[in-house]
Amino acid sequence: MRLFSGLRKKAEGMTLANKLILAISASTVSVLLIVSIFNYTRTINIITEHQSASSLELLELKKQNFIAYFNQLGDYSLALRNDESFVRIIGSTEIGDYTNILYIKSLLRNMYYSRKDITELKLYLVNSRYAYTISRRQPNIKTEEGRSPDLPDTKDLEEGNYMYVMPPANAPEDTLKIWRTIINISDKKPLAYVEITVDDSFLSNLADIKETGDLFLLLDTRGRLYYANDNIILNDKIPASLTGYTNNQKNGNFIYEINDESYLAIYSRIDNTDFVLFNMIPTNRIDSAVVETRNISLIIAFAALIISLGLILLLIKTLLKPLGVLAEQMKIVGGGNFKVRIKVGGSAEISNLGTQFNSMISRVDELIEKNYVAELNEKMARLQALEAQINPHFLNNTLQAISAQAIMKKQRGISKMIEALASMLRYSITEGDSMLLSAEIKHVQSYLMLQKARFDERLDYNIKMDESLSDFLIPKISILTLVENSVNHGLEQSPERICINIDILLDKGYLVIKVVDDGCGMSPEKLTEIRRQLEYENGMTGSIGLKNLAGRLHILYNGMAKMEIDSTPGKGTVVILYIPLNN
Fold first, then answer.
1. What pLDDT band is residue 113 in, cutting at 50, 70 and 90?
2. How is the chain split into domains, by residue range?
3. For the ranges 116-130, 229-243, 431-445, which has the lowest average pLDDT?
4. What residues does 530 pair with on adjacent strands?
5. Which residues contact 123 (CB under 8 A, 6 or more apart)?
6. Which of 568, 461, 576 lies closest to 521, judged by CA?
7. Cα separation of 547 and 543, whole Å?
8. For 444-459, what is the mean pLDDT?
9. pTM to 2 decimals?
10. Residues in contact with 474: Cβ distance below 8 Å, sequence separation at least 6, in sequence order
11. How far is the C-alpha of 90 from the C-alpha of 138, rounded, in Å?
12. Range list of β-strands (E), 162-274
């Protein structure tokens, strides 16, 4: 009662549209369940009977093929008995000379290789107590003297057709082991025993399983399993109750479980033998065949449900049409027009929603207006800052004027320094990432001249370059970065005198730029850190210039350019650039 009362309270809180949808859905689902259960029960019986009949027809054909195959094996086991010379040889107590032994081996070998499904062939001679074996594992005939056969415990080898079939020891590769007694016609005493082991090739082809999960089994009436297309079955103990269903009838079907899975077992007993063929079909696959019929019933029921829901949705659409108007006007606001105001009629709830949305849009419009004004003011401030900056060209012209005044005042040294500074300024404001090698060298010479004026005798430098290399393009300010690194770490951090050597040459497809100084060098720890930062893009140290240059080289030359650095404390630093010529 409490559950019913709780459901009723929840139903009272639902909208009318939801109540109608729930009622129609519940009615349709109830009818659907009743029809589906009835059709499922009726259809599964029909399909089971049809599946059993068709599988039994196929099993009968397989049975006829197996009988023919089994008879072939019976004839095959008598192949030696049909050879008179062989019977004469094995009838004596002693085999005799070596020729007879070769003759027996030749017969055995020919018999073995006459079929491809034989895995092992053994011959036991009763009178001479010799045993001969040939198999796939031992293609050369093995001879054993004084060997007695391990005969199975059966009377079939002593009477009747003198033939006995049993499961092999080497399953699942082998399926049948056949014993045949070769007797003396006059006194019915055994002269020899033939043991034949057969592989599973014929039964594998006979199974011809086309559906996943189907099982094809060969058993005898004692419940011994000879073949199964699923090797897992061979490792399980097949209950004797499986063949217990076949005692009274030649063929039929029943439901059976293997490894907790239910199967429809269709069987057929093979005439004049103890063998029974089984074809086992998972019942879940039979059940899946019923799904089609069940789905048709569901489609019909769902069609009725959809029609009913369509009528309900039409009613709901009429009631909720004002919400559609609200959604369309929201799209206008989403396009950036925050000046629009929504006018929605309908119920009080929908009208209140429109009012709240108009209030939100007004607040958003005010915030956007404030942000826009702030951004505009920031741009104006940046523009004013740019206008206040010194024009580099004006600064260059001013330096030229100062140089002219120094010449007029006969201050030649000051004039050269100003000209070098002006040259460096012009070079730095020149557009482009790559410059001629000659222009870069001139820029470096201007820099070294200014540093020479600053440090006087503490700085010496040498530049060695073939004039034929002047027109090569190299990254702008690349050599200057290396030279500046030597000055900063060699002169500014030590009072000692240094010499900077710049060598530029061609080597193995690269333009090689080598900058060597004999300054104070650096510690192994600092050298390792700089090398690591030249390889990776993270980290910040005092060698920002080298790091930036390495990044530029990687971008400009697609990773083909290289930078190497080496340093010895107290002896100096070497930095080498390798720029590929094909770029």
1. very high
2. 51-287, 321-385, 461-580
3. 229-243
4. none
5. 80, 104, 108, 131, 132, 133, 192, 193, 194, 195
6. 568
7. 6
8. 83
9. 0.46
10. 434, 435, 437, 440, 511, 513, 579
11. 24
12. 163-166, 174-183, 190-199, 215-220, 225-228, 251-258, 261-269
- CB within 8 Å of 246: residues ≥ 6 apart: 221, 252, 267, 269, 276
Report d(CA 497, CA 499) in Å as an integer: 7
pLDDT at 539: 43
d(CA 289, CA 43): 9
HSE, CB side, 13 Å, CA atoms: give it for residue 26. 6
**Tokens standing for residue 498:** 């240094």
Query: Sheet containing 251-258: which strands, arranged edge to edge?
Result: 225-228, 215-220, 275-282, 261-269, 251-258
Any idea what DSSP says for residue 93? S
Residue 145 amino acid letter: E
Residue 253 burial (C-beta neighbours within 10 Å; 0-12, 13-18, 19+): buried
Pairing of strands 572-580, 510-517: antiparallel
Give the separation between CA 203 and CA 277, rounded to whole angstroms.
11
> Looking at the predicted structure, is the pLDDT value of residue 394 above 50?
no
Could you tell me the fold of the domain covering 51-287?
Beta-Lactamase (3.30.450)
Fold of domain 461-580:
Heat Shock Protein 90 (3.30.565)
pLDDT computed for residue 576 by the predictor: 93
Place of tokens 């009362």: 5
Whole-angstrom Cα distance, residue 477 to residue 427? 9
Whether the CB-CB separation of 221 and 276 falls below 8 Å is answered with: yes
Other CB atoms within 10 A of residue 401 CB: 11
What is the distance between the alpha carbons of residues 236 and 124, in angstroms, rounded to a whole number? Answer: 33
Sign of the CA dihedral with 199 first, then 201, 204, and 205 last:
negative
Name the CA dihedral angle for 236, 239, 244, 245, rounded to a multiple of 10 degrees: -60
Question: 3-class SS at 141?
Answer: coil
Beta strand spans in 334-475 (E): 434-436, 459-465, 473-475
Q: Quick one: tokens of 407?
A: 């010449």
Phi, psi of 144 (to 5 degrees): -130, 130
User: What angle is formed at CA 168 by the lines to CA 164 and CA 169, rounded to 5 degrees?
Assistant: 135
- Of 159, 164, 133, nearest to 70 by C-alpha is 164
Name the helix (H) or strand (E) containing 505. strand 498-507
What does residue 273 show for φ and ψ, rounded to 5 degrees?
-140, 175
State the Cα–Cα distance between residues 32 and 304, nearest whole angstrom.
10
Structure tokens, 20: 């109608």
For 258, the token pair is 């293997």
Place of tokens 């070294």: 448
